[in-house]
Specification:
- By secondary structure, the chain is α+β, with helices and mostly antiparallel strands.
- The protein has a single domain, classed as Aminopeptidase.
- It is 35% helix and 26% strand.
- Strands 1-2-3-4-5 form a five-stranded mixed beta sheet.
- A hairpin with a 4-residue loop joins strand 3 and strand 4.
- It is globular and about 45 Å long.
- This is Acetyltransferase.
């Protein structure tokens, strides 16, 4: 398995996959929305973010979208992991963990002192994030009216 930056051709495919996987990535909270997904990805990419892909032979096993943001509460720059996805046949084999570690290493090399991510309630990846040292900072709560 190799981890590398996605090229332009792959970025277009990753965007399409992200769009079709929105519901799964949000643990059922969001529906697929072309404009919202396009806006989010475009903003991340235009501010220095990029995709890393895990590849085995010619197969893409998964990807992570990383970038740079501002910590709203501390008003300092922070690395941010926007999206992590591993295709089902490759899950439970450490692919997500390897992508996470490579992304964090690259953010550290870029001068980031911390990294953040959002995870939806019910997303099974939360356990992996906690094992990698992530801790809850805030909890968004919602009530339907």
């Amino acid at each position: 398995m190799i981890i590398r930056r996605a090229n332009e051709y792959e970025i277009n495919h990753l965007f399409q996959w992200s769009l079709s996987l929105t519901e799964e990535l949000s643990a059922g909270y969001m529906e697929s929305n072309l404009h919202m997904t396009h806006d989010m990805v475009s903003k991340v990419l235009s501010h220095g973010g990029y995709y890393l892909i895990a590849q085995h032979g010619w197969e893409v096993m998964g990807w992570i979208l990383l970038g740079f943001d501002q910590n709203f509460y501390k008003n300092n720059p922070v690395g941010f992991l926007y999206e992590l996805y591993v295709f089902p046949p490759y899950r439970k084999n450490g692919v997500g963990k390897i992508l996470m570690k490579e992304a964090m290493d690259q953010l550290k090399q870029a001068g980031m002192k911390s990294v953040q991510l959002n995870v939806f309630a019910g997303n099974s990846a939360k356990n992996m994030y906690e094992k990698l040292g992530f801790k809850e900072v805030t909890m968004l709560m919602e009530k339907e009216l």
